Amino acid sequence: MTQAEHDKERSKRRTMGVHLTSSETFEAYIYPEIEDKLYEYLWIDLYAGEGNLVFPILEKIPKKKREYFFKEHIFLSDIQEKMVQKCIDTAISYGISEEMAKMNIKKRNNLKKFPKFLKEKKFPLYHITNPPYLYLGYIRKHEETKQHLKYFEHQNEGYQDLYQIAMINDLRNNVKNLVYIIPTNFLFGSAVSNKFRLDFLKYYNIEKMYIFEKKIFEFTGTNILIGFFKKKKEPSLEAANFEAIKFKKNDKIIERDYHLKSEYKYRAGSEFNVFIDKFKAKKPLKVSYYLTMDDMEENRGGKRIKVIDTSEYESNQYNQKILEVNEKLKSKVQSNILYVRTVDTGSYEGRVGLYNIRDDFDVDGIFVSGNTYRTSPIQIFLEPFISLEKQNLLRKYFNIILEYYRDKLDSEFLTTYKYSSSDYTRKYLGLTQTRSIIKTFPILLIENGNMKKLKEFIEEKEVDKILKLIKQYSKKPPKESNKITNWF
Questions:
Q1: Is 52 in a helix, a strand, or coil?
Q2: Given 34, 77, 182, 429, which is the most exposed site by the fewest CB atoms within 10 A?
Q3: Vertex 431, ends 408 and 474: CA angle to 5°?
Q4: Largest distance between two CA atoms of the chain
Q5: What is the set of domains in the chain, with CATH numbers?
Q6: C-beta separation of 225 from 210 below 8 A
Q7: 50: Cβ–Cβ under 8 A, 6 or more apart, which residues?
Q8: Closest Cα partner for 163 from 190, 184, 191?
Q9: Which is it for strands 353-356 and 338-341: parallel, antiparallel or unpaired?
């Protein structure tokens, strides 16, 4: 395939939200979970593509019995005529008659309408699929994808991705067993998945997951997971507890037990949110961000400060400037020495966290002459003022806590920045998360005796002792709610 052909195919798949799955994926991860159930279900894939998630089942069936098995136990469908014909051809290659293949392989738009006639079949449905996925924000911005906006209207308002429409259709049609290959934002996403997880996991248990933090599909770098879901006997907002195997880009494989709670919208990594809630100081520091042009206009004067301008980036560095401001703004800038790096650089020395402005840039402050971007270095302003020594102590505390939870939770409470070839999966640290960690630092309350202990614990990186010490200065944790809302 030439580069031009590759780019054209990528664009086409992006428009449709389609990424084809190999039969090897089925053999390695899905078949071992279903091999003793082949004759118990009608195996369906409503977004079948080339059919690689169902056809391999036929290899396990004796050739003489395949026609009857196919008739009773397999149904495939896709919106693309080309894919439907490919599936028919594949069925014929397995020994299925063309007439039978055409009976059980249909062209349909199953996002628009679930094939309810399948529920009248002899065997219960078991849906194994790699559905289309395309984020609503992308759909709205591109003319060629606006055709998909209709799926997010009426009862689907608030959902954020095509795969969520597919899954919610299964829920509404009482499909009890699902295997879905979907983006990992189902598990780790915030705004993109919060509503959907609450709605969906009220009705389904997660039985198992395979999580891939490395490139799987040729035409997208989106990290994906394979999720095994089973319908609950009764809807509930109980915690979702399951085992997962994670495949990382350095070929490392780790096993994790997940405990997702409804009060944190079933988002993975919520143990970090529990820490934030329980350890917020009774009297926290106030945090604000950015030195902007508006600040300059309001505080012009004869005092000079040296800054970098994150709106001007040339030759792999930010341009330096001298700003003329009044004494008030000069004092504010020079007395706040910390900035937040919100995006991992890819090296272990450049991970997200708090850093010293003068140490890294040899300037007084970080200025933004244009639009504020959350991926640039951002100066932090604290109220009330704390000494430079205490700010450096905050920096060390912040980074120790952040790295502790990154290690404990495999960085899952952070947002994956984008696919790259770095040694670890690059993450984005939100400004709300940054503020929340700072608010657990009880510097405005701690007494001299405990201050000495805190410094020692921070220098020795003894996290358990740090947490035990600061807990006595925190607010009480919020009460959990057991209220269940019925969405359907």
A1: coil
A2: 34
A3: 65
A4: 92
A5: 3-270 (3.40.50.150), 286-471 (no CATH)
A6: yes
A7: 20, 83, 86, 87, 90
A8: 184
A9: antiparallel
Contact 243, 208 (CB under 8 A): yes
Provide the pLDDT confidence category of residue 144 given band limits of 50, 70 and 90. confident
Instruction: Give, to the nearest 10 degrees, the angle between helix 448-459 and helix 388-408.
Output: 50
Which residue matches tokens 């640039």?
376
User: Cα–Cα distances in Å, from 407 out to 225, 413, 414?
Assistant: 21, 11, 12
Instruction: Write out the two tokens for 400.
Output: 């120790």
Q: What was the pLDDT predicted at 475?
A: 82
According to DSSP, residue 285 is labeled P
Q: Is 232 exposed, middle or buried (0-12, 13-18, 19+ CB in 10 A)?
A: middle
Q: Minimum mean pLDDT among 225-234, 413-422, 455-464: which range?
A: 413-422
Predicted TM-score (pTM) of the model is 0.77
Q: Which of residues 486 and 404 earns the better pLDDT score? A: 404
User: Which DSSP category does 292 fall into?
Assistant: E
366 touches 307 (CB < 8 A):
yes
Residue 329 has pLDDT above 60, yes or no: yes
DSSP category for residue 30: I
Model confidence over 155-192: pLDDT tens digits? 999 999 999 999 999 999 999 999 999 999 899 888 88
268 vs 252: CA distance, rounded Å: 20
* Residue 370 zone, left/alpha/beta (φ > 0; ψ -120 to 50; rest): beta
More confident residue, 367 or 6: 367
**Helices and strands: H and E segment counts in the chain:** 18, 19
